[in-house]
Amino acid sequence: MYITFHKKLLYRFSFVAVILCIISILHIIFIKEIFNQSVPTYLPTPPPFSIHHVVRHDQAVSLSITYTGNKQFLPYLLQELKNSDMTLTIFLPFNYYHTTTINELNETLNENDGSLFEWGGWIDYKQETQVDQLPPEITLIRQRNATPEQLKQIATNGYTTIGAKLTLAEPHHLLTTDKSKELLSHIRSGDIIAINIENNIAAATELTLQVGQLLNDSGFNLIHVSQLLFEEDKLKIERIE
């Protein structure tokens, strides 16, 4: 009688254990499916962008991305890059200077009818700090607490993280001899330069040419502001189209 009772108890326990295992498996599948639906980590197929050859400029690595798709798919591209192993700097339109988050960027771009790649400015504004010793026409932004030696090391290693942004804020004030000296005395290898177009494209274009010529004559190579910057050692792609 004891043996019979023991067997019945064992059968009941086994039956309950099997039912619990089935429920657990279904629960895991259900939760996984919900998670996959709630976190969009994919790009449209085929992806409406192309990544061109990685090029070195002044010991910094640049990667040029041309986006030809609908604006509504741009957040997927940004999110995919953000979720990757690559450290990047994204440049934003000047009139969206204070945009600091992906969500704000998405809302801004949805309201913007202009070109997505008329870009300057930057994302992650709070991670950068301003240097105040320059004249008011020039604003220099660099990494928080970065020393000249650290910036030199970043450039020597062949990549940049947040980098630096140099803005000549008044494009109608063309580059004078004094401003040229100020610029050359403060700029460092690995810095990023942006010209504020404002409403005077002609003057901004002239200023861009002057600054470019000055830096080229001084031995600097330039990175275009419409590019994204990546760590080369983590970037395993030579070309995607």
TrEMBL record:
Transmembrane domains' residue ranges: 9-30
The entry's keywords: Membrane, Transmembrane, Transmembrane helix
Highest taxon listed in the record's lineage: Bacteria
Name of the molecule in the record: NodB homology domain-containing protein
Upper lineage: Bacteria, Bacillati, Bacillota, Bacilli, Bacillales
